[in-house]
User: Fold this.
Amino acid sequence: MQYYLAINGQQAGPFEEQDLVANGMTADTMVWTQGMAQWLPAGQVPELAIYLQQSATGGAGVNYAAPQYYGNDYLANGAQPQQHQPYSYAPPENYLTKAILVTIFCFFPVGIPAIIHAALANGHYRNGNQAEAERCNRLAKKFIKIAFWIGIGYLILVLIYVIFVASFAASHHIF
Assistant:
């Protein structure tokens, strides 16, 4: 994946991940790649953590606007990038089907937020916002688990009740 760096207030790049440190990236250097909503310090981009050293040096502290999208290429400050590769990452797991199933069969009050977050994750993925898609997926998965275990607990309680009623009826010769 290729990233742009903001060095001394100027955009540089794109650079391959492994070349970022050699081109001046520190934890405080502002970075951007296709799919990111805004420039972020490299220390806040999980994919770059392995390339950063433990001690961070001072950054420019300037808030950069994300390059604007025109067709298939990203332009920043009116300059055409020298090299361009499409930003791609594996699509996140789609939890929408699971969310719908736990809503129908387990516990719908918790299943509804699971559906909402799963749908949001799919939308964020389509818009190229990987971080937000992953966050929504984590929430959807959490709500799915909660709804599932509440549904299982309810099923166990119903089975205990049925066994109790059946044993009471059998002991009193009701059936």
Notes: Helices lie at 96-105, 108-126, 130-171. Residues 53-65, 68-76, 78-87 have pLDDT under 50 and may be disordered. The first helix runs from residue 96 to 105.
